[in-house]
UniProtKB/TrEMBL annotation, chain A:
SUPFAM superfamilies, A to Z: P-loop containing nucleoside triphosphate hydrolases
PANTHER family cross-referenced by the UniProt entry: ABC TRANSPORTER ATP-BINDING PROTEIN (PTHR43820:SF2), HIGH-AFFINITY BRANCHED-CHAIN AMINO ACID TRANSPORT ATP-BINDING PROTEIN LIVF (PTHR43820)
One function term, GO molecular function aspect: ATP hydrolysis activity
Keyword Magnesium on entry: no
The name this protein goes by in its record: ABC transporter ATP-binding protein
From TrEMBL, chain B:
Molecular-function GO terms, alphabetical: branched-chain amino acid transmembrane transporter activity
One Gene Ontology CC term in the entry: plasma membrane
Subcellular localization, as worded in the UniProt entry: Cell membrane
Alphabetical list of InterPro entries matching this protein: ABC_transp_permease (IPR001851), LivM-like (IPR043428)
UniProt-listed Pfam families: BPD_transp_2
Coiled-coil regions listed in the entry: none
Name this polypeptide is given: Branched-chain amino acid ABC transporter permease
Species in which this protein is naturally found: Paenirhodobacter populi
Lipid bilayer topology: Multi-pass membrane protein
Length: 239, 337
């Protein structure tokens, strides 16, 4: 499979603080990657660095072989990187439909298509961003990233702070996006057992560096890696 | 592999762009009242013409401040350049008014486009200083270029032909008011379409959070340049309208006071729903007119005091009131916001 996103020896941070230290990753066409690790190890920073939102200190980010390291965030988005930020980033003064259409570009993912994926958004199309629940905001954030018709989605802790029933609904949608639609994705998640069932590959970060990489089934079977880097027992992952 | 059912590319977005945004009863009533004023207030057409011109200036400011969050103290730059361009066009080319408006719009847009790149860096304070500085520079240029602009003596000898060859500008201001009101309405309708399109939504996204807007794919700089240029065209038309209805231009059109008037009017009416400029212009001019009649020497004192009280009491109230009324009449989302 051809590579959609390649991160080569990327170092980045905020101000003088180094948060990523020589991270390298490759995401292939149609591949869903789980980016795992404990709090503060650089997962969000990795996604933010792919979007150009951190201070670049070294290395490269390639999208389909094209070096996008020096591009602005908006140019990266237009090049095909869809970003779903941790805090969801809904524009509060816009309605659901306005949030989506303000960035929509022609492609497979249209307004109808994302409403098909998230019927709840269609029901709330006239509501403002600040009138949505956390789960609805997350759905809207994903929908907004999809209508940009990206080549790869970056999902930063999409289930954080949501009720279990909403988490299941969201994971179902993410599963359809990456499995049925074949969208390449990097999904940051603290709860490995939730996401490894959906993803093809997994990478574990620790203190800004990659400490484990392989397939998701391999990680689920690697009790030592799970316990050492994530503090997760094997039985919990399998469950 | 199963695929989600998709409609043709971007069809929905195009549909939304073409979708007419419903006019609420409050909006229709507002414009019917404006038309009624032509017949019911014939003795007030001169001040109503000034109000319409000021409303267009405030509307131009609302596009950038209310929708894109760009603060400006230099809207007089585009207003003044539009005024001088229309005046010079009338003197040296033709006094035909409609083409004069287009000349004013083009002049305002050119100045706005050329200076818009200065606004892309920095935040509010930087933008305030940059816009203020640009207007100050143009003021001094107009002052020094007396051979072209008349300098401190003003530009004289402007003669405007009848509108469409039929309606002559009269001393009572009847033609001027109908003309100004028509121009205001046309510009309002265009602005309404713009702010209710995906372009307008993306402006609000930029206003809410520019960095986030950029990261989710909104071309922030391009949007700011575009809306500032459009705003400049509006201000240029306001200036041209001033020239055509007054048939005289002084350096005041480029003054700081002119920019401050626009901002003050928009503050009174409330930014971000398009009607603020018009409501603010009406309130400001009527209060100014009443106070200058009541206390000719100290009217500015009272205007200033009222403005301070108004801002402290709650400057968002007129906007919220109008939005609430619109929402109630429409039974849903309000206004042109």
């Amino acid at each position: 499979m051809s590579e959609i996103l390649t991160i080569e020896n990327l170092s980045a941070g905020y101000g003088r603080a180094i948060a990523l230290n020589g991270v390298s990753l490759k995401v292939a066409q149609g591949e869903a990657m789980a980016l795992l690790g404990r709090n503060g190890v650089g997962k969000t920073t990795t996604l933010n660095s792919v979007m150009g939102l951190t201070r670049h200190m070294g290395g490269r980010v390639l999208l389909e072989g094209r070096d996008v390291t020096r591009l602005t965030p908006e140019a990266r988005a237009w090049a095909g990187i869809g970003w779903v930020p941790q805090e969801r980033g809904i524009f509060r003064s816009l309605t659901v439909e306005e949030n989506i259409t303000c960035v929509a570009t022609p492609g497979r993912w249209t307004l109808d298509a994302v409403y098909g994926m998230f019927p709840r958004l269609r029901e709330r199309r006239g509501n403002f961003g600040n009138q949505l629940s956390g789960g609805e905001q997350q759905m809207l954030s994903i929908a907004r990233a999809l209508v940009l018709n990206p080549k790869i989605l970056l999902l930063d802790e999409p289930t954080e702070g949501l009720a279990p029933i909403i988490v299941e609904e969201l994971l179902g949608a993410i599963r359809r996006i990456v499995r049925d639609e074949g969208m390449a994705a990097i999904i940051v998640e603290q709860h490995a057992r939730k996401i490894l069932k959906i993803t093809d590959t997994a990478v574990i970060l620790d203190r800004g560096t990659v400490v484990w990489s392989g397939t998701s089934p391999a990680l689920m079977a690697d009790a030592e890696a799970l316990a050492t880097h994530l503090g997760v027992g094997h039985h919990r992952v399998a469950g | 592999m199963a695929k989600t059912d998709m409609t043709p590319n971007g069809a929905k977005v195009v549909k939304i762009m073409r979708r007419p945004v419903r006019w609420s009863l409050a909006e229709i009533a507002f414009w019917l009242l404006a038309v009624a004023s032509v017949f019911l207030l014939p003795g007030q057409h001169l001040i109503l013409t000034e109000i319409a011109g000021l409303a267009i200036l405030a509307l131009s400011l609302d596009l950038i401040l209310g929708y894109a969050g760009v603060v400006s103290l230099g809207q007089a730059a585009m207003y003044g350049v539009g005024a001088y361009a229309a005046g010079l066009y009338a003197i040296h080319v033709t006094g035909e008014p409609l083409s004069g408006l287009l000349v004013g719009a083009a002049a305002g847009a050119v100045i706005a486009f050329a200076t818009s790149f200065l606004l892309l860096r920095g935040a509010d304070l930087t933008r305030l200083m940059v816009t203020l500085g640009v207007a100050a520079v143009l003021f001094e240029v107009a002052n020094k270029a007396a051979w072209l602009t008349g300098g401190a003596d003003g530009l004289q000898g402007i003669w405007i032909d009848p509108i469409l060859g039929l309606f002559d500008f009269d001393l009572e201001g009847h033609t001027g008011y109908v003309y100004s009101l028509t121009v205001l309405f046309v510009l309002f309708v265009i602005a309404r379409l713009v702010v209710n399109s995906p372009f307008g939504y993306s402006l609000k996204a930029v206003r809410d959070n520019p960095l986030r807007a950029s990261a989710v794919g909104v071309p922030v700089n391009a949007r700011l340049v575009a809306v500032y240029t459009l705003s400049g065209a509006y201000a240029g038309i306001a200036g041209a309208l001033f020239t055509q209805t007054q048939q005289f231009i002084s350096l005041d059109v480029l003054s700081f006071q002119k920019s401050a008037d626009g901002l003050m009017v928009l503050t009174i009416g409330g930014p971000g729903y398009l009607y603020g400029g018009m409501i603010g212009a009406l309130a400001y001019k009527l209060i100014q007119d009443a106070l200058s009649g009541f206390t000719p020497q100290y009217w500015q004192f009272w205007v200033g005091l009222l403005l301070v009280i108004f801002v402290l009491v709650g400057r968002d109230r007129p906007r919220q009131f109008v939005i609430d009324v619109m929402a109630r009449l429409r039974g849903g989302k309000g206004g042109a916001q």
